[in-house]
Design a protein that fits this description.
By secondary structure, this protein is α/β, with parallel strands linked by helices. About 45% of the residues lie in helices and about 15% in strands. The chain has two domains: about 170 residues, Rossmann fold (3-Layer(aba) Sandwich), CATH 3.40.50; about 190 residues, Up-down Bundle (Dehydroquinate synthase-like, alpha domain), CATH 1.20.1090. The longest helix has 21 residues. The N and C termini lie far apart (about 80 Å). The structure holds nicotinamide-adenine-dinucleotide (NAD) and zinc ion.
Length: about 400
């Protein structure tokens, strides 16, 4: 059959073959440091829920099960706080989410979350408040940013790690197929409210684990902060409120600054500038079946990459020695036997972490190493043999 092409359209502007689309998405959110967030006289959370709204706002509260269990009065306090404001409509009693990595590993929980959103008619003008550790923030954050293509979210982080690191950021995620944060979103919270009082019901193990992220930012960004951590190790280990509050504020500020001014808040490039020590950490968490906490894995990952930096001639021995001593003084265990697992070809499984780290972003492998205590450098190649030597060395330090 003979086909006849239609005539060309007239050369009118409406017939151009290209639409140059440019959207800028301004985002601003406050990170508060407060005490007793649900005290009736504390306006911070109430004001943030009602920000930019003259009308009534519906709110739903999701709480980490361990936070709820640690304080029998919390449920009532939350309910009283919301009912004291005529403008806030609390849609249900606080909803409990299993805490820890379990919530990021169980797809059924995500289903339950979406069902709750439907049942409670939570919409984009409603506000979800999530109270919990980094895992619960990641999980609820993921659910909130995908249901209805994004519901307002206020984070109330309750662990050291989530107050000084993850809660401040723009990432949410859950695990899939044994891969950390394989499913996830970038979305900015409406506000972050850090209340140091929550940290006093944490286990000593979780109090310590979160401090690894403070050490991490000091290593790559702030030599003075590393010195400060060395000088205040006793106060940090005994969890003195002034020292803990200072270190949380300081590292939250460095994290926030990196996101706002680092030029790549949604990680379009190949680098993850703040993820020093994390290629190994993420793999170790998975290899240990998540029995090693994120912060504990970061402590080991930082030392392995510091020794590698040292073997590469980038970091001097005295600095490596100071870092090893600091990690030990904080009480970190510097080895886990799952780092010795091999595959059927005799390859160390942990080494796969390098490829997985690269794949997560795509692009070129980019690993941060140390040139001194306080500054990092990005490299794009890792020598397997030297890395295995670094692992052996760290095992001997433990
Ligand atoms: N989104 C990000 O940018 C980002 C960054 C770093 C880490 N993370 C993620 O954060 C998670 C780790 O978070 P985490 O270190 O906060 O640990 P976590 O959330 O696993 O919490 C540790 C344990 O403490 C409990 N808990 C939380 N708050 C408590 C409190 N106040 N009192 C008593 N118990 C409490 C939890 O239920 C859990 O059992 C990992 O999944 C990690 O991947 C995310
Ligand atoms: Zn981390």
């Amino acid at each position: 059959m003979l086909t006849v092409k239609p005539p060309k359209p007239s050369q009118d502007a409406d017939f151009e073959d290209l639409i140059e689309q440019k959207i800028s998405i301004p985002a601003d959110y406050q990170v508060y440091f407060t005490r007793d967030v649900f005290d009736l006289g504390n306006p911070v959370l109430r004001q943030e829920i009602l920000r930019q709204s003259e009308l009534q706002v519906s709110a739903a509260v999701f709480v980490d099960a361990s936070v709820m269990a640690a304080d029998p009065a919390l449920e009532q306090k939350i309910t009283d706080y919301f009912t004291a404001s005529a403008q806030i409509n609390l849609l249900s009693a606080p909803i409990i989410v299993p805490g820890g990595e379990a919530c990021k590993n169980d797809p059924a929980l995500l289903n339950d979350f979406y069902q709750r959103v439907i049942e409670l008619a939570i919409d984009r003008h409603s506000c979800i408040v999530v109270i919990g550790g980094g895992a619960v923030l990641d999980f609820v954050g993921y659910g909130a940013s995908t249901a209805h293509r994004g519901i307002r979210l206020i984070r109330v982080p309750t662990t050291v790690l989530s107050q000084n690191d993850s809660g401040v950021g723009v990432k949410n995620g859950i695990n899939f197929a044994h891969r950390k944060n394989f499913l996830g979103t970038f979305s900015t919270p409406d506000a972050v409210i850090n209340d140091v009082d929550f940290l006093y019901t944490l286990s000593p193990r979780d109090q310590r684990a979160g401090m690894a992220e403070a050490i991490k930012v000091s290593l790559i960004r702030d030599a003075g902060f590393f010195d400060w951590l060395e000088r205040h190790v006793t106060q940090m280990v005994s969890f003195e409120v002034d020292a803990v509050s200072y270190s949380i504020r300081h590292s939250a500020r460095i994290h926030a600054r990196q996101i706002a001014s680092g030029g790549d808040p949604f990680e379009k490039g190949s680098a993850r500038p703040l993820d020093y020590g994390h290629w190994l950490a993420h793999k170790l968490e998975a290899l240990s079946d998540y029995s090693v906490r994120h912060g504990e894995a970061v402590a080991i990952g930082m030392l392995v990459d510091a020794r590698y930096s040292n073997l590469k001639g980038l970091l001097d021995c005295a600095s490596l020695e100071r870092l090893t001593r600091l990690l030990k003084n904080f009480g970190f265990t510097l080895w886990h036997d799952s780092l010795q697992q091999h595959d059927s070809q005799g390859q160390l499984l942990v080494m796969q972490g390098l490829a997985e780290f690269r794949e997560h972003l795509g692009g070129e492998l980019t690993i941060t190493l140390l040139t001194s205590l306080g500054s990092g450098v990005e490299v794009h190649e890792i020598d397997d043999e030297l890395m295995q030597q670094s692992l052996d060395w760290v095992r001997q330090q433990a």
